[in-house]
Amino acid sequence: MLHSPRGRTRRRREHAAPRLPPLRIGEALALRWDGVDLDAGTVQIFATVTVDLDGRSVRQEHTKSRAGMRTLTLPRYGVDVLTRRRVEAAHDLVFASHAGTPMSEGNLRIRWRAAIEGSDFEGLTPKSVRKAVATELARKLSPAAAQMQPGHASSFVTERHYIEAAPTPDVSMFLGRPGLNGH
Predict the structure, then answer these.
(1) Could you tell me the pTM of the whole model?
(2) Where is the Tyr recombinase domain positioned along the sequence (predicted)?
């Protein structure tokens, strides 16, 4: 149970967003159950949610770029969370408002923070998770693998804005030794 600032108690719900692959927020909000294959453990990304001129969240039937249209494999815990969420689903959108319309980005962020509050993940944002996953994939597999997960058209964007530079090793014990620096 969580306690609100006004002293009311509210139940913490398990939210799937922190357990999905590194999706853009709009891609997560556009997920429909017909694009989720729980048996195969995959999600199809083929749409996004944007804000229309009236300030409403609307689903558009394409992603930010052609590279954004992809099928991603879920980790086991992501399948488990979505399976439980599917049982309770009343709408075709995975992240629907109570009215069945796309949830707003602001509401997803509120739920995200509530879901990770008090955990080791507190303070992370969807973007920081996307960057961390890209960095890990680049280091363990390749920059090309890191590019495909977040749906980037080229590895340039991934390498420049998502993959963190490897820490510079401490070489201070070698500096000033004979044979180094031309001495």
Answers:
(1) 0.70
(2) 1-175
| Residue 92, in any domain of the structure | yes
Is position 26 within any domain? yes
Average pLDDT over residues 146-166: 69
* Domain residue limits at 62: 16-104
In this structure, what CATH number is given to the domain that contains residue 46? Answer: 1.10.443.10
Residue 41 domain flag: yes
Instruction: For the chain, give the DSSP string.
Output: -EE-TTS-EEPPPP-SGGGS-S--HHHHHH-BGGGEETTTTEEEE--EEEE-TTS-EEEESS-SSGGG-EEEEPPHHHHHHHHHHHHH--SSBTTB-TTSSBPPHHHHHHHHHHHHTTSTTTT--HHHHHHHHHHHHHHHT-HHHHHHTTT-SSHHHIIIIISPPPPPP--TTTTT-TTSTT-
